[in-house]
Amino acid sequence: MDTLKKDEVQRFKVHHTLLSRHSRFFSTIPKGNKKINGALQEQGDGTSISSNSNALNRVVLDADRQAKASDVEALLRHLYHDVPLNKDASLDHIMSLLRVSGPQQLDFPTIYNAARQIFEDMFPKDPEAFTHNHPLHDALPVATALKLSSVRKAILYSLVSTTEFDVSGSISGDMDPQREVTLTASNGETSAGRQEDPTDSIVDRTEPPASPQTALPLRALSPANIETCMALMNHLIAHFTPILFTPAATPHMACTDVFAETWMPLVIQPALEDDGVYKPLETLQRMKEIDWAHHGLCQSCIVGKREEWTDEQRTVWNLMDTWLEPPSEIEKD
Fold first, then answer.
1. What is the pTM assigned to this prediction?
2. Which residues of 194-212 are buried (b: 16+ CB within 10 A; e: fewer)?
3. Which of 171, 243, 282, 287 counts the highest number of beta carbons within 10 A?
């Protein structure tokens, strides 16, 4: 890829026909020096394409397009088949494509829809399949912007149960680069040696570079998300505390006595040691996996309690939809 950097501006040589074939945004930009749909099109050498077929056609993207250099690079790697878009792609690559290909950015609908589906499928949709193997801090803004409530719920629960979710953190070398981006498309070969239509254009993007004072650490949450995590934690604690600290009961007195005798060492103590009071999904799962038969419970009571604890996991999962709803206008008043 030909990349030229000057005064914090990045330029990319790309094929105009390739972009316009897949992007609604680029397909609507006409020839000539005019601004349309948030882009300025001009000739790199001051001549028109019609009078000089070898001219570089430059398109300067407005800052509100929010096309970061790293995201544009991910888009080009996809378009030139360097990095496939599938379930094995990294989450960073998927999120870059989502940011750059959306309707309010460069508008590549096919890429955007495919990346969105893969992103959604990366996160669990029910408590039984719950995992935490995701870059949560980076994924939350994407899920929020796309209004993917189930994904956002999974991320927020993971943040509450596995991180400190604070706004502190190092910003050295770990900042979100808000650099100017220039997409430059020209006739002939790209750095990858590919040939396309000689009517290719130049695409350019300018945007004030961010200073260290304005760049956001990738691993820190916003104050609003901190507040959301704290509220979710409080809901989880309020709901799950009585369940955790009340020994289970069964139809059989002997089995109820077993719970009374073992509840503290087998359930409460491990939960206290790993903050399980605000991790109900994990704590309930651990309760289900205890060898209760070894401690004297009958098989029917074991089956019944495991079903009950599975139902409670689903209850917590569903309640989070309500807990994470924004306050209504009436409540605000």
1. 0.69
2. eebeeebbbbbbbbeebee
3. 287
